[in-house]
Amino acid sequence: MSVRGMRSLLLVPLLLVLAAGSDVAGPEVDRKPNFVLMMVDDLGIGDIGCYGNDTIRTPNIDRLASEGVKLTQHIAAAPLCTPSRAAFMTGRYALRSGMGSTGRVQVLLFLGGSGGLPPSETTFAKRLQQQGYTTGLVGKWHLGVNCEHRGDHCHHPNQHGFNYFYGLPFTLFNDCVHGNGSDVLADLQHTLQNLTLLLGVGLATLVCVHMFGLLEVNLRLLVALILLSVIAAAVWYLPFKLLPTWNCIIMRNQDVIEQPMRVETVPQRLLGEAQNFIKRNAHHPFLLFFSLVHVHTPLFKTPGFAGRSRHGPYGDNLEEMDWIIGKLTETVDSLGLANNTLMYFTSDHGGHLEDSDARGQKGGWNGIYKGGKAMGGWEGGIRVPGIFRWPSRLTPGKVVDEPTSLMDLYPTLKYLAKDTEPDRHLDGYNLMPLMEGKAERSEHEFMFHYCGVYLNAVRWHPPGSDSVFKVHFFTPNFSPPGAGGCYNTKVCLCHGEHVTHHNPPLLYDLFYDPSESRPLTSDTEPRYSEILERVAKAVESHQSTLADKRSSDNHSQGNAHEHSVSSQMTWDKILWRPWLQPCCGTFPFCGCKEETAHS
User: Is 502 known to be catalytic?
Assistant: First the structure.
């Protein structure tokens, strides 16, 4: 064989190796990024070290901020779980999907109700699923399960773009732990209980006087009273006394695997499921939404963290939550995924100021910001942590002071997943230009702050100005007057006698007065009239984007409007219906334990 022939022969294996190497490297270079979104529950922005707290240890969250980008004006679209999470998932204000309330009940209260995120809505999980991503939700959902019958799962995470779901289809309520009282319509429960007792006593009295011949009682009346007593007892006992069985459950995909759940093992199980999801999907693009139930009450009593903090059980829970975030970050890094994974940390809204007992505060601290959870547009209930880490793309230690929103995640994920397909009206904007330093100004010139379906406040960041003006059309009435929250009711309401309307509206400049303590007037702000006029025009423009809007007597007062999507927060959709109740076993004898649960 000639020398040239031998050289050609020797080149063949080398070319094959190079070709194989290019096949391996090519997809890795072109591979879409992974997303790990971590949302905690009821966390105050003042609870985190990198946001100014120096008494609670949050080294793992602080590390994410030092290695990535921290947003200082990151805003939830609502100050309560259900509407805030609906807006986060869809990139749209909650009232667009019917998830804003008009009355007393502002979140879903029963897993056996028919309300929830409508099947017609589109979540970022569904968009990414269509782009080839494997999507998972581990933790809290709180956006409904069934519509018309048990098992239709029309609101379930699997129907909203998540390939895998493990966790709480509802939320962690005090009802889930014996002795912690009830979060669900406590006054109605008390009324029904008293009515049942009253009917029982009355019935027993009639039977006695009839038996002793003291009074002749009509048999039909007696039967009617017996039936009424049975019905009253059932209406009180079945939905409310069995709440831990109905609401406090664990599901894997569409199967109930624990009912009622063992709360003490929930943190370990959620962390394990999140870690395993990342490990299973490490070799192709994935989205994980890790929706923690920390630091919502009831607070966990994990032995390894109990008594470790300087702030009692709440501080212990917060430091446990930080440890969980650290373990998940460690999983991403140990698998060599850090440079191709965008990690995000936030809370669904601010801390719950009114949540306390004889032992002290059980809710979060919102730092210098006024108000908290369920307090409408006050800054303490809607300003939340916002931290992004992506070592290969985001500059470590960068701080963004511009207004941003939880609703911005939807368009940001779409952009990074190269999803260019048409979409419906969005209220969020792609965050990458801000975080990469390619833009200096937020696209959120205006942001609209809702309390239920009522327009509570508007934020305006004028072009070419550092000022961020906020106009409050009404504010919740604190009880007792002068207190820092609605302590008599535990949750502030958005309507009627529960609020005070302001004409002219209250006006603050958050740049100079972030704690909203000094209202501006025409004497102290030269642009006072211009600001109110500009905001009024923005409100009119915004409301024109709401489908089937009817005329309103006064937009600035935030009157409710009709929308093309039916409200999911009406009484008939919120209240418990036995035929919609998720159940393992034969209803109503529901009960099971997860076989692989940690001891």
Answer: no
Phi and psi torsions of 456, nearest 5°: -90, -40
pLDDT for 82-103, tens place per residue?
Answer: 999 999 999 999 999 999 999 8
The pTM of this model reads 0.89
CA dist 302 and 518 (Å) reads 43
Q: How far apart are CA 287 and CA 134, in angstroms?
A: 6
Angle between helix 81-90 and helix 409-416 axes, rounded to 10 deg: 30
- The reply to whether CATH 3.40.720.10 applies to domain 31-172+248-590 is yes
pLDDT at residue 314 greater than cutoff 80: yes
- From residue 37, alpha-carbon distances to 124, 328, 394 in Å are 12, 11, 16
Token pair of 415, please?
Answer: 């952009």
Contact 204, 325 (CB under 8 A): no
DSSP result, 504-547: EEEEEETTT-TT--S---TTT-TTHHHHHHHHHHHHHHHHTTST
What beta strand segments (E) does 382-498 contain? 383-389, 398-405, 446-451, 454-460, 469-476
Q: Is 349 a catalytic residue?
A: no
Would you say 377 and 58 are in contact if contact means Cβ atoms under 8 Å apart? no
Catalytic residue among 50, 74, 81, 563: 81
Burial, 127: exposed, middle or buried (Cβ in 10 Å; 0-12, 13-18, 19+)?
A: buried
> Which residue among the candidates 142, 155, 472, 561 is catalytic per the annotation?
142
* CA–CA separation, 150 and 145 (whole Å): 9
Angstrom distances, CA of residue 308 to CA of 49, 293, 295, 301, 566: 16, 20, 16, 11, 48
Asked whether the beta carbons of 417 and 32 are under 8 A apart, the reply is yes
| Rounded CA separation 543/563 (Å) | 11
